[in-house]
Structure formats: structure tokens, C-alpha cells
Design goal:
single chain; two-stranded parallel ribbon; mainly alpha
Length: 462
């Protein structure tokens, strides 16, 4: 049987998409349409891209508002749970480890009830789980644990100032793991938001080195855990590509890591020696009090993972900053919390930074090619982040190893402004039998239609 790659044109011209036995038409409305005899790939018009962006923005806003709601209610409940004037349970790490176990049970129940939707035919091997799943789970546990421990020695305002640095680490890890393409404009926007947050919570407070080091390390772990979580959710071979499955597989390791910190810092002998566990009745009452916030925590984490799946880690982190802005503004408006001129300036700068980031994402969509199928649905390539769904970038030419010979590959490689060559092999036929390899090549050939080399798009990001 003839190899499909033999039917690929080896010498695509400089300003044409890389096609295989395909034709490119310019429709009456000036839009690009690609035919290959089996399917039609349509490059969206400006109006379609605006509609696509606003549809995604509305869905993501709904998820963020749901996350705000669950996080706010959980914060109020925890304040009641830990407050000396109310339930007075003084062991937050122990409660968090219990919450992780509750999340695991709820995720298992959801997967069992809706198995067709949330249970993949793939699952992580022991090796892949150890290498890919345990690191984000442990990073989550360390972030939660050290954040709680640091609050024992520093004030809440100083903690918020230091923890806002997690946005910088999120951006750094997103660049490191190539979850976000580097952009000077994006870096400037993040620095504006970071500066605004510092001013927003600035107050006269004592500097405590031990607390500072704890919260900074927690911020590093925070940036690392979100990036690693997104990588795990994008890995189709792991079977963690939906929030319930991600919680199901990550929460046990997170529970163990938080429990270890709780045992060392809080001491479980001391915890179980309290009146909360003195009798069977008091123990059951205490556990019931843990169940409600555990359910809230599950809903909150589900919202977080859906945001990461759809938008990515940086929008998720900026949504967290927006939540802080909302909390401070509401507290000042309704409860009379006093804000200094510096705090108010910080709020204004942060809001401007968030607006600039939103505009950055909007321009990223509008300045890129969005690929649609014949039904108007956005085409998404495997391993592609939902935040960049259907976007075809000129500075990341996607080469298909199983479909192109060396001559074709060489002609389709582009150099960016610095002369660096980006070689992103999306679909590899290695290890496939003959039938699977042919199917893989068909997918590769169709994806290659989306590789454009128009020089005018190279300045899409600063």
C-alpha cells in the first residue's frame, strides 16, 4: 500500500499553506477555504473570530463566577470553623487533608455515575503516575501547608503581598513548560498587575524572615502546581483530561502530602486528644462539620480545573487576583474597611492590568488564524490548550514526522525574528501498526493544512 506521505507536495510555496492534494479557494466574501476531497477547513473571518472570542469569554466568566461563589462561601465557613468565638477547631491542615479525601470520594462517585463522560479508556501507569501526577499533587500539598504555617508568624496583609508573587512564578513556569508563548506585552501586563496587588495590600507591617521564606516557597509551589496540573490535563495518555478524573487521581497524593505536614506541624496525637474526638458522638459531629466544607472545596476545585482546561493557568491566576480586588472593594463598600490612598491606587492599577490582559487575549485571537470545519466548529488539535483552541501560529510551524519526508520538512520550517527554529512534532507514527499509522498520517495531513507562513502575522505578539 502506498505511503500517504508520498502524496504530499514536497515544495510548498513561501506564502501558501502546506497542503496535500488540496485546493485553496478564496470565497466570495474573501475568506480562505481549503478542500481535500473529504473535508473543508475554513479560516474564520474577523466577525466569526469575535463571536468565537465572546462565546468563550462568557463561558469562562460563568466558571470564574462559580469559582468566586464557592471560594467565598468556603472562606466564610472556614472562618466560622476555625474561629475561637464559634466552632473553634484550630487545626486547618488536618481539615484540609480530610477535605482532600472527601474530594476523592466525590470524584469517584461522579466518575461512577457518569462513566461514559468522565472515565477514559486510558489511565496512568505506575511510572507515569509517579513522574507526572505525583509532582503537581505534592506541590499542591506543600503550597497549602506552607501557606497555612506562614500565617502563624506573619500578618494577613503581609502574606497577601508575598503570595501575590505566585503570579510571577505562574508566568515563569508557563513559559518554561511552553504553556504560553513568550510575549513582552504579556510580561509587562503581569508586572503591572503584580505592582497593583502590592500597592493594594500595602500597609505598615513587621518583616518576619521565617514567615517570608515560607510564603515565598509556597508561591513557587503554587506556580509549579498549576502549570504541572495543566500539563497533566493535556496529556491524553494519562486519562486525566477532565476535572473529575484529575481530582480522582491527584487528591490522594495531595491528601498524603498535606497530612504529613499536618502531622509534623500540628501533631495528630494532639488533634485526636481534643474534645472534638473525645466520644463517638463528638467525633461524628466533628466529621459532619468537615463534610460541608469538603463538598464546597470539591465544587471550588472543579471550577478551578474547568477554568484551567478552557483558559489556562495564567487566566486562572489573574481570576484569583480579580477575586482579591472584589473582596477588598466589597469590604470597603459594605463593611467600612479603611483603604489608604496607596491601597486605592493599587486597586485601580490592578483593575487596569486585568483589563489589559483581557485585551491581550482578545488581540491574540483576532490576530491569529482560527480554523473552522465545514460546520463552523473550531478545529482543535490534540495536545492543544483550550485557551488557544483553533489558533494557528506562524512562529510555531507544526511539522508532522510521519507524513513528510526530509525535503518537505525542511521547506516547511520557518525561523522567527531571532533566527530560532521551532520544530513542534505534534503527531508521530512511531510504535503504530500499519493501519494505525495510516490513520495517524491522515490526521497529520489534515492538521498540516493549518500551517500558514504569511509574514504579516509574525508581529502578532510584541
Amino acid at each position: 500500500m502506498a505511503n500517504l506521505s508520498d502524496r504530499v507536495h514536497p515544495e510548498p510555496s513561501e506564502h501558501e499553506p502546506i497542503l496535500s492534494n488540496a485546493e485553496q479557494d478564496i470565497g466570495a466574501d474573501g475568506e480562505d477555504t481549503i478542500h481535500d476531497g473529504q473535508s473543508v477547513v475554513h479560516i474564520a473571518s474577523q466577525a466569526e473570530k469575535k463571536s468565537f472570542w465572546w462565546r468563550n469569554a462568557l463561558i469562562n466568566t460563568f466558571l470564574i463566577l462559580a469559582w468566586f461563589l464557592f471560594a467565598t462561601v468556603l472562606s466564610v465557613y472556614n472562618k466560622w470553623l476555625f474561629s475561637p468565638d464559634h466552632f473553634n477547631f484550630p487545626y486547618p491542615l488536618f481539615v484540609t487533608s480530610v477535605h482532600m479525601f472527601i474530594q476523592f470520594l466525590l470524584a469517584a462517585l461522579l466518575r461512577y455515575t457518569f462513566s461514559r463522560k468522565f472515565v477514559s479508556d486510558k489511565k496512568p501507569t505506575l511510572r507515569s503516575y509517579s513522574i507526572k501526577a505525583i509532582p503537581p499533587a505534592v506541590a499542591t500539598g506543600v503550597d497549602i501547608g506552607l501557606s497555612n504555617v506562614s500565617l502563624k508568624s506573619i500578618t494577613l496583609s503581609f502574606y497577601t503581598m508575598c503570595k501575590s508573587s505566585s503570579l510571577i512564578f505562574v508566568l515563569s513556569f508557563a513559559f518554561l513548560f511552553r504553556l504560553e508563548s513568550f510575549s513582552v506585552r504579556l510580561v509587562v501586563v503581569i508586572l503591572i498587575i503584580f505592582t497593583g496587588v502590592l500597592l493594594m495590600v500595602a500597609s505598615e507591617t513587621a518583616f518576619v524572615l521565617s514567615g517570608f521564606l515560607l510564603v515565598i516557597f509556597a508561591s513557587v509551589c503554587s506556580g509549579l502546581r498549576w502549570s504541572l496540573t495543566q500539563l497533566v490535563m493535556q496529556d491524553k495518555s494519562m486519562g486525566l483530561d477532565n476535572p473529575p478524573s484529575t481530582i480522582f487521581w491527584l487528591s490522594p497524593a495531595t491528601a498524603v502530602s498535606v497530612a504529613v505536614i499536618s502531622i509534623v506541624w500540628e501533631g495528630w496525637i494532639r488533634v485526636f486528644s481534643t474534645p472534638f474526638f473525645a466520644t463517638v458522638t463528638s467525633t461524628m459531629n466533628t466529621l459532619v462539620m468537615f463534610i460541608a466544607p469538603g463538598i464546597l472545596a470539591f465544587c471550588m476545585v472543579m471550577s478551578e480545573y474547568y477554568i484551567i482546561q478552557r483558559a489556562g493557568v495564567i487566566p486562572m491566576s489573574i481570576a484569583g487576583i480579580a477575586k482579591e480586588v472584589s473582596t477588598i472593594t466589597i469590604s470597603a463598600w459594605f463593611f467600612g474597611d479603611e483603604l489608604t490612598p496607596v491601597n486605592i491606587t493599587g486597586v485601580a492599577i490592578t483593575v487596569c492590568g486585568i483589563a489589559l490582559f483581557t485585551y491581550h487575549k482578545y488581540r491574540k485571537t483576532m490576530d491569529s488564524n482560527v480554523a473552522l470545519d465545514e460546520h463552523g466548529n473550531v478545529i482543535r488539535l490534540d495536545g492543544e490548550d483550550s485557551s488557544d483552541e483553533g489558533l494557528v501560529y506562524d512562529h510555531d510551524v507544526e511539522l508532522v514526522a510521519s507524513a513528510y519526508d526530509a525535503r518537505s520538512i525542511h521547506s516547511s520550517i520557518q525561523e522567527d525574528g531571532n533566527g530560532d527554529v521551532h520544530r513542534h512534532l505534534l503527531f508521530s507514527g512511531e510504535g503504530l501498526d500499519e493501519g494505525e499509522e495510516d490513520a495517524e498520517e491522515i490526521r497529520s495531513l489534515r492538521s498540516s493544512k493549518l500551517n500558514w507562513s504569511d509574514e504579516t502575522h509574525k508581529t502578532r505578539d510584541v
